[in-house]
TrEMBL record:
Residues 323-393 form the ACT domain. Its EC number is 1.1.1.399, 1.1.1.95. The keyword Magnesium does not apply. PANTHER family: FORMATE DEHYDROGENASE 1, HYDROXYPYRUVATE REDUCTASE. It comes from Ramlibacter monticola. Pathway: Amino-acid biosynthesis; L-serine biosynthesis; L-serine from 3-phospho-D-glycerate: step 1/3. This is D-3-phosphoglycerate dehydrogenase. Keywords: NAD, Oxidoreductase. It catalyses: (2R)-3-phosphoglycerate + NAD(+) = 3-phosphooxypyruvate + NADH + H(+); (R)-2-hydroxyglutarate + NAD(+) = 2-oxoglutarate + NADH + H(+).
Amino acid sequence: MADKASFAVLVLNQISKAGLERLPAGRYLTGKDLAEPDAILVRSADMHSMAIPASVLAIGRAGAGTNNIPVQALNARGVPVFNTPGANANAVKELVLAGMLMAARRLGAAQHFVAQLDGADGLDKAIEEGKKPFAGFELANQTLGVIGLGKVGCLVADAAIKLGMHVLGYDPDITVDAAWSLPSQVQRAASVEDVLRNAQLVTLHVPLVEATRHLVNADRLRLMRADGVLLNFSREGVADDAAVVAALDARRLGAYVCDFPNRAILRHPQVIAFPHLGASTREAEENCARMVADQLRDFLEHGNIRNAVNFPQVTMARESNWRVAIANSNVPNMLGQISTAMAQAGLNIHNMVNKSRGDMAYTLVDVDSAVDPSVLETIRAIDGVLAVRYLPVA
Ligand SMILES: NC(=O)c1ccc[n+]([C@@H]2O[C@H](COP(=O)([O-])OP(=O)(O)OC[C@H]3O[C@@H](n4cnc5c(N)ncnc54)[C@H](O)[C@@H]3O)[C@@H](O)[C@H]2O)c1
Ligand SMILES: O=C(O)CC[C@@H](O)C(=O)O
């Protein structure tokens, strides 16, 4: 297999020009209709039913959630799925703050009331009389529960503390970096139930995976205060929306703020819904596009893996002109077999890095001379090897 002089990148959603510009036209072809792409750039397009061409070496998600991508199936092909941790977190945080304020002060209904006034004589009286139903509550001194303390959850927790709120956070897998980034005032909850029982407002910031599907269900909703506010900026499916509507109708929940409208919640008077707007700011779209383009390029040209959801972080500075990148199952004796194949072909290993994550492992090997295609075929034939790429410096 020879070095690839150029790469074709299929673009499934609108990706900011700020990112596409980082794939230089001389080496990259980007477009919506490419038959045999080397990579795919995507935002929220559902790829589960898509036939992903065999030519695809990587997927780049300009955003955080990857539930629209068939990651398991791509594992079997040794294809990394990159995302952009934190690149849109501030945009989501700001919309969560807006959602909390809209719910606390009934701003949507109040604005609707003003919009339908006809401006006739007696307007001032109509305003003063009409505002009575819109008296709300202040966020300061309320308790906000944050479920999921990753990039978004940590920013929301920090902003809430700055607004004078008490914050109760829950994340069984919080990273050390995330924990360090949290203000010391954030209290640690023992469970989802603990958060729901003790917070007036509860905001969800977890990925949608099988373990988080209907994380907030009918039983758990019963733990919330009758005037409580639930905010879902995670994904449709993290809260059971039918159960949420039942709780709202039975006056066991005060309001639901949601970024994923569907038939169950549409036009409900106690629902404040946005059209999946969390990440839709100019800044977030540019941040995500730049980050994903850089990661994709580093992988396509050098085999480096940064921020893949299904592979370990593996980067190695280039010290030789001949690099082989191998994705394999995380099983014993893979490195032994790979290095034996290289040694038998008379190749001297200059530098090597191998890391694993769950079922997946990834190896970068720099050698001191050119690699014959037959060596790559030998490595490709090893049981457990999923993908092999040769990346000589052009
Ligand atoms: N509305 C939008 O436009 C928008 C924008 C960005 C992200 N999102 C959604 O928000 C999610 C979170 O984004 P992020 O950037 O903070 O991701 P992140 O990966 O930085 O954080 C997710 C956190 O959730 C935690 N978690 C997982 N399962 C949990 C559970 N059962 N209970 C508690 N915590 C759990 C993880 O440990 C992690 O810390 C994304 O996966 C995406 O679905 C939506
Ligand atoms: O791309 C978008 O517009 C939304 C992205 C957002 O849902 C995410 O998970 O990052």
